[in-house]
Amino acid sequence: MPQRVKRLYDSVVPSGNGYKVRLLLHHLGLEVALTELDFMVDPPQTRTPEYLAINPNGRIPAIELADGRILWESNAILFYLAEGSPYLPDDAFARATVLQWMFFEQYSHEPYVAVYKFWRLWGGLQNLRQDEQAKLLARGHAALRVMNGQLSRTPFIAGEHYTIADIALFAYTQSATRVGFDLTATPQIEPWLQRIREQPRHLPIHTSARYPELP
User: Fold this and answer.
1) Full-prediction pTM beyond 0.90?
2) Virtual CA dihedral for 84, 3, 96, 104, nearest 10 degrees?
3) Which among 32, 41, 68, 166 has the fewest CB atoms less than 10 Å away?
4) Element (DSSP H or E) covering residue 20
5) Topology of domain 5-82, per CATH?
6) d(CA 111, CA 105)
């Protein structure tokens, strides 16, 4: 089993990457100390020398284990925490399938769905050229179509059971329609989102007065 987590470094801004870790910790019934950083201020709190000593990539989330070791990158953290739990299968091929979808999330989904959300809510969408906006929407819709194809065959993204692959993809897909993505051509997405919300110990994404999750 994974070693006890001492602290989670997350963001004041409701980041989907930080939320993934909070959600899995809640599923597992694990309470940890929380440090919230604001990467929207100047200079960003994720770029201070103190935090760069924790995560040299200057991003959230990161976790500190009881023995002082640090782990960063949200999906790596999910994989570590899920070991020995129902959220990560034991079978080698099933585990690889979970990883397949987590890699897909970081390479084909997050760079478009999450980035468009950021620009829409906090980055000043008007500062992006029209062709840049169109590219984010087009590639985000393409990723959602890939997910829809899988979800037309299985109830969860990596098969019959809810796993950390679902958590990874849920984090930003949950707000896709409300930030400008059209899901009418991907009818399996909304029922999947609802199945995840109905999981035991589900936790909504955190918000703050300064950084609301939605416009």
Assistant:
1) yes
2) 130
3) 68
4) helix 16-27
5) Glutaredoxin (3.40.30)
6) 8
Q: What b-and-e string marks burial along 8-47, b requiring 16 or more CB atoms within 10 Å of the CB?
A: bbbbbbbbbbbbbbbbbbebbeeeeeebebebbeeeebbe
Weakly modelled stretches of the chain, pLDDT under 50: 215
Cis peptide before 61 (omega within 30 of 0): yes
Round to whole Å and give the CA distance between 100 and 142: 17
Q: Where are the beta strands (DSSP E) in the chain?
A: 5-11, 33-37, 62-65, 70-72
pLDDT of 206: 86
Residue 111 to residues 1, 41, 67, 141: CA-CA distances in angstroms?
32, 22, 33, 12
- Between helices 164-173 and 16-27, what is the axis angle to 10°? 140
Decide: 65 and 6 in contact? Cβ < 8 Å. Answer: yes
Residue 163: HSE in the Cβ half-sphere, 13 Å Cα cutoff: 26
Q: Indicate the domain borders of the chain.
A: 5-82, 92-197
3-state class (DSSP) for residue 63? strand
CATH class entry, domain 92-197 = mainly alpha
pLDDT of residue 215: 47
